[in-house]
UniProtKB/TrEMBL annotation:
This is S-(Hydroxymethyl)glutathione dehydrogenase/alcohol dehydrogenase. Residues 11-364 form the Enoyl reductase (ER) domain. Keywords: Metal-binding, Oxidoreductase, Zinc. It is an enzyme of class 1 (oxidoreductase). Its cofactor is Zn(2+). It comes from Garicola koreensis.
């Protein structure tokens, strides 16, 4: 069985620690990938800080690109040697939601992977000294990983392999929010609250979808400057002015769509407060456990406001579209990826993320020799 170097989360609130692990061969409908790069996502930080419950010890990392080493017997759409990127939602293809094309609601993904850290036969492909390790999605903070085949997508040569990692969560999530959930139309005005990796992706994709005004909201002027570079037409520093008031000063009314990309009570309430009558608040940020909505119910009813949840997208449709946008040069990966780390800096990357020192998306370049 293959062995791999990996960063393991032993206990909550502790730094990730480098170790050697064993990786089982892929099952019939799985793919073994040599990891080229893995994104640094705030959702993994939630797990590290125990704000999202997850079994431990575990290998995190859910935004992966790499080269196929081996495929299971039932896999035909990729083969050894292919350059690939993976969606963080790994649809089973068998549950009632997958059957209806709602892969972002895959029951087996949530019940097995997100609750137990397992794949769909109830097992994990990772172990250390005979002890199973939980897998957060495909467990990409390792030099190789096993991924269900429906989450694996071939890359054209025009897409840089390492940079392609961020297609599988940051941009995949943004695409689902902009196109599947909000269904942003040309000429609409949108606001994006929190200009981190996902928020910046939403800004970039909303502008590409034809939004007339894209207003970025954050407390960090450096992030707001980056938002301009990715398509924001206006920015609001919410530490300096009240965003709902500022939006109405800019537009004369509220926005058609407000995207919330942080996951907090205050920013969800802000998203609703920024809406024009009939507007849509699209919630994309994962909140620490126990946080609940705080909205004016009468305002919601009388003004026909909509609050919509958005978690990723349907892998089968969204990932090819995101990859095609990247291949056509319509996604500025180089601007979105603001911090690059060597594999041995993985723990340091999450420390910097926790300190809000990563402006856009951080990227662990796991194996530069593959690129």
């Amino acid at each position: 069985m293959p062995t791999a170097s990996a960063f393991v989360l032993e206990k909550a609130h502790e730094p990730l620690r480098a170790d050697q692990i064993t990786v089982d061969p892929p099952q019939a409908d799985e793919v073994l990938i040599d990891v080229a790069a893995c994104g640094v996502c705030h959702t993994d930080l939630h797990v590290i800080k125990d704000e999202v419950a997850f079994p431990k010890p575990a290998v995190l990392g859910h935004e992966v690109s790499g080269v196929v080493r081996e495929v299971g017997a039932a896999v035909t759409h990729v083969q050894a040697g292919d350059r690939v990127a993976c969606s963080f939602i790994m649809p089973c293809g068998a549950c009632r939601h997958c059957a209806e094309g709602l892969e972002d609601l895959c029951e087996n993904f949530f019940n097995h992977n997100r609750v137990r850290g397992q794949l769909y036969d109830g097992g994990t492909r990772l172990s250390r000294g005979g002890e199973d390790l939980a897998m957060y999605s495909m467990a990409g903070h390792a030099t190789c990983c096993v991924v269900p085949s429906r989450a694996v997508f071939a890359l054209p040569d025009s897409v840089p392999l390492a940079d392609a990692a961020v297609l599988g969560c940051s941009l995949f999530t943004g695409h689902g929010a902009v196109h599947s959930v909000a269904q942003v139309q040309p000429g609409e005005n949108v606001a994006v609250i929190a200009a981190g990796g996902v928020g910046l992706s939403i800004i970039h994709l909303a502008r590409a979808a034809g939004a007339q005004r894209v207003i970025a909201v954050d407390i960090d002027d450096e992030k707001l400057d980056l938002a301009y570079g990715l398509g924001a037409t206006d920015v609001i520093n919410s530490a300096a002015e009240e965003p709902a008031v500022a939006v109405r000063q800019l537009l004369g009314r509220g926005v058609d769509v407000a995207f919330e990309a942080l996951g907090s009570v205050a920013t969800v309430k802000l998203a609703v407060d920024m809406l024009d009558d009939g507007g849509r608040a699209v919630l994309c940020g994962i909140a620490p456990a126990g946080q609940t909505l705080d909205v004016d119910i009468t305002k919601l009813v009388r003004r026909k406001l909509k609050i919509l949840g958005s978690f990723g997208a349907s892998a089968a449709t969204a990932m090819p579209e995101v990859i095609q946008l990247a291949a056509e040069g319509k996604i500025d990966l180089d601007t979105l990826i603001t911090h690059r780390f060597a594999f041995d800096q993985t723990a340091e990357a999450y420390q910097l993320l926790n300190e809000r020192k990563i402006l856009g998306r951080g990227l662990i370049e796991t194996n530069p020799a593959l690129v």
